[in-house]
Amino acid sequence: MNRPTILTGDRTTGPLHIGHYAGSLSNRLRYQDSHEQFLLLADSQALTDNAHDPQKVRRNVIEVALDYLAVGIDPGRTAICLQSQIPALAELSMLYLNFVTVARLERNPTIKDEIRARGFGRDIPAGFLCYPAAQAADITAFKATVVPVGEDQAPLIEQTNEIVRRINAVAGCLVLPEARAIIPKAGRLPGIHGKAKMSKSSRNAIALSASSEQIRSAVRAMFTDPNHLRVEDPGRIEGNVVFAYLDAFDPDQDEIAELKAQYQRGGLGDGTIKARLEVILQDLIAPIRERRAQLSEDRGYVLEVIKEGTERARERTEATKREVVNALDLFQL
Fold it and tell me: How many other C-beta atoms can be found within 10 angstroms of the C-beta atom of residue 145?
């Protein structure tokens, strides 16, 4: 049976956290059964703003792969592959840059926001600016028709489809399919202090490998409502990190709705909702942490998983590259 192809992945800049689990990993577990899934260890993309520290990118290849396997990604159903070791991706990236302008790259809302957040000004690494073309190469090389992304990443899929349409128009045939973005319902979780989104670089996340004490400390430190000083005081749930996490992870959403109403009326303390959340996160992370510890004892196995997945990816992407080159009638020896 032909299944739709799905491409997803993560930058290898650090171990994954519960925000990744809520926003992408839990969905990837489901996609294994319904899609042909390729999971990209995006080390080339990680270098676009980490070229000053390539060892950071290198050492986190295994760390991210460990997280994939620990949460239940099955390498027999999902190919875990290393971006930098798939030559067709780089070759297609270079080709696609001829089908997009610098002005269009600079107008991409995702790129504009990321440039502003990193404070690049005009000192933008060229690889970072050209990332939309590189992502288009990643997606189309696998002929992925669905791509799970956060809402803030949707403009990148739009730009991918623009490049696809230009190539198909020049080729005079439908050589590449367009892709559809899948936006997860959970969205991005806020950091534990409530000041920014949860991220590896901001040190405001709970890692999937977090110890019991680290989870407890993180939950205790979570931002709630600074004006909710006494149990009987009415509290705000907007911007309340604890409720944001309960929305993402608590299976009993009807009871969470009741707790929200009680919190807003007054009569529900922060300690009570934090205690509930801690139990949920401890139960979620404990088996992942244990499985990860077991896998880390056999890194040879993890490396073999990456090698096998990368070989599958090479075969798929090389075939697509040949189709594109032939369709554009480029000179070949």
Answer: 15
How many Cα atoms occupy the beta-carbon half-sphere of 47 within 13 Å? 14
Residue 214's contacts (CB-CB under 8 Å, 6 or more residues apart) are 206, 207
The correct CATH number of 5-189+299-327 out of 3.40.50.2000, 3.40.30.10, 3.40.50.620, 3.40.50.10330 is 3.40.50.620
For 268, phi then psi, to 5°, come to -130, 120
Q: To the nearest whole number, what is the mean pLDDT of the chain?
A: 94
Q: Which residues of 185-204 are buried (b: 16+ CB within 10 A; e: fewer)?
A: ebbbbbbbebeeebbbeeeb
pLDDT band at 284 (very low <50, low <70, confident <90, very high): very high
Residue 127: exposed, middle, or buried by beta-carbon count in 10 A (0-12, 13-18, 19+)? middle
Please check whether residue 38 is in contact with residue 81, taking contact to mean a CB–CB distance below 8 angstroms: yes
CATH for the stretch 212-294: 1.10.240.10
What are the tens digits of pLDDT across the range 48-70? Answer: 999 999 999 999 999 999 999 99
Distances (CA, A) of 72 to 21, 163, 215, 227: 11, 34, 21, 41
Q: The pTM is what? A: 0.92
Rounded to the nearest 5 degrees, what angle is found at the Cα of 135, between the Cα atoms of 130 and 140? 130
pLDDT-based confidence at residue 256 (cuts at 50, 70, 90):
very high
The mean pLDDT value for 314-323 works out to 98
When pLDDT is averaged across residues 301-315 and rounded to a whole number, the result is 98
- Smallest CA-to-CA distance from 20 within 6, 32, 8, 31 is with 8
- Determine the Cα angle at 22 with ends 16 and 23, to 5°: 85
- DSSP per residue over 267-332, as a string? ---HHHHHHHHHHHHHHHHHHHHHHHHHHHT-HHHHHHHHHHHHHHHHHHHHHHHHHHHHHTT---
